[in-house]
Design the sequence.
């Protein structure tokens, strides 16, 4: 294409061309060039390749660059070449298969009937990594890229307490239906309790505090009295 402007030299808009040339280090340089007045001008240098794979990658990148600059598609597009990992950035790993599996298991149990996504997500992350409620919200984003607002968590906590009996009923019905559970074998959970001794000047003489097993190592055993609470799982809800 030639554009003439009065009093000025004609402007030649030439098409781009791909070029390979050997370098002094015996590598293959890939360039985009154009020809103006029979002179070759290097428009862009895409790098030097030391093997066929690298050369193919550079050639493909140069071809795409020409397509973007010219805004035109080629008549005979080449097959997709290699994609270099250097063109990507690692952002993380998500356990989507594990999440989908645990969600389907909750659906089998009937836990998804409440229509509370956050409740199901808390159950899922509790299985994977038990933690506090706020920490669980953070872990959901880390493992599954699922985001919940803290305000939403605080809003639903009182509502979840009302679901206790219904969840126990769903669990028992599932166990009876799928495993013929008849309470012939009963499991129990043992929770460690200790009572803190108070001085007479304090309002209360003792207070019950729940602690983890590992925490007992840091407690002064002489000043505290321990007992065990046995939580029996039975058909009638406690």
Sequence:
């Amino acid at each position: 294409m030639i554009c003439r402007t009065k009093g000025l030299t004609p402007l030649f808009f030439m098409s781009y061309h791909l070029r390979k040339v050997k370098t002094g280090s015996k590598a293959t340089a890939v360039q985009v060039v154009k020809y103006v007045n029979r002179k070759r001008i290097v428009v862009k240098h895409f790098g030097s390749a030391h093997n066929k794979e690298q050369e193919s990658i550079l050639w493909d990148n140069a071809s795409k660059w020409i397509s973007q600059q010219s805004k035109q598609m080629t008549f005979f597009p080449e097959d997709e070449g290699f994609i270099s990992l250097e063109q990507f950035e690692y952002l993380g790993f998500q356990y989507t298969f594990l999440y989908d599996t645990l969600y389907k298991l909750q659906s089998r149990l009937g836990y998804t009937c409440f229509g509370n996504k956050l409740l199901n997500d808390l159950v899922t992350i509790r299985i994977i990594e038990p933690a506090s409620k706020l920490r669980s919200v953070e872990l959901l984003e880390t493992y599954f890229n699922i985001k919940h607002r803290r305000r939403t968590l605080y809003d639903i906590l009182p509502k979840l307490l009302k679901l206790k009996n219904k969840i126990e009923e769903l669990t028992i019905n599932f166990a009876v239906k799928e495993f013929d559970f008849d309470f012939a074998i009963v499991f129990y959970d043992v929770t460690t309790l200790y009572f803190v001794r108070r001085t007479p000047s304090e309002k209360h003489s003792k207070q019950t505090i729940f602690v983890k097993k590992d925490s007992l190592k840091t407690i002064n055993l002489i000043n505290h009295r321990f007992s065990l609470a046995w939580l029996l799982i039975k058909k009638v809800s406690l």
